[in-house]
Amino acid sequence: MLKPVVTHAAADESPQAGSTELANPFSDFVPFEDEYDIDEDERFMYFGRFFGLSLGTGMHKFTGNIGKLYNTALPVMDFRLIYFFDFRLAGVLGITSGNHAFVGADQGPVEIALFRLNADLKYYFNTRNAGAAITAASPYLIGGVSQTFRTQSFGGLNQVGKDNAVGVSAGAGMEFALKPRKTALGIEARMHQFFFKDRYDDTYINSGVEDTTGNMFSLLANITFFW
Q: How far, in Å, CA of 223 to CA of 36, rounded?
């Protein structure tokens, strides 16, 4: 009976011989989250918006005690520069100006000019699985800080006072595309709080107002150009 003979060549071709390293089935593994990030980055590069310029107008309305003095500012002018970090998060730098007025018992006619420098973050909701109406509205949240400069002209006293204060704000809005990735019409509502040093003073006590505490609400409409 003949016995099979294993030659050295055959032994060398065996996967168990001649090599101390075996193929690692996980050596080329890429985590799913990395693949997702790469895919999102590529989509953003091709289909995302990178910068925006917004021009808007609207109204400012104060509440509380200060709202008993200041009338509604209309129109308000608003200008913004927008930078998109990705599809849903954007940074916003802007300026806003508005004028108010009232008549004080001791001060006579008073005119107030407010000028704000704003820094905000804007977050767009993911509407991929939402209805067509919500997707078309492109809803977002916005919040940030501001430096507000106030000029008060007291007609009865022939005086002008200037001060400034830090402010915070938060709100929400919607954007309707007029031309996809190019232009959009936006509507935004926000609440603002300013920390003027004299907000607890009784300057207008004879006008029936014990202090000037209160918040401000803004309602703006804007046109934004993207590129």
A: 33
The DSSP bridge partners found for residue 58 are 76, 220
The model's pLDDT over 19-64, given as tens digits with 9 standing for 90+, comes to: 445 555 555 545 545 555 556 555 555 455 789 999 999 999 999 9
For the chain, how big is the Rg over CA atoms in Å? 31
Name the residue type at position 116.
Answer: R
Q: Where are the alpha helices (DSSP H) in 48-146?
A: 64-69, 132-137
Closest CA to 146 of 84, 97, 214: 97
Q: Which domains, from first to last, does the chain contain?
A: 57-226 (2.40.160.20)
Cross-strand bridge partners of residue 226: 52
Helices and strands: H and E segment counts in the chain: 4, 8
Query: pTM of the full predicted structure?
Result: 0.77
Which is nearest to 151 in space by CA: 216, 101, 219?
101
| Residues making up the chain, counted from first to last | 227
Q: Name the amino acid, one letter, at 94.
A: G
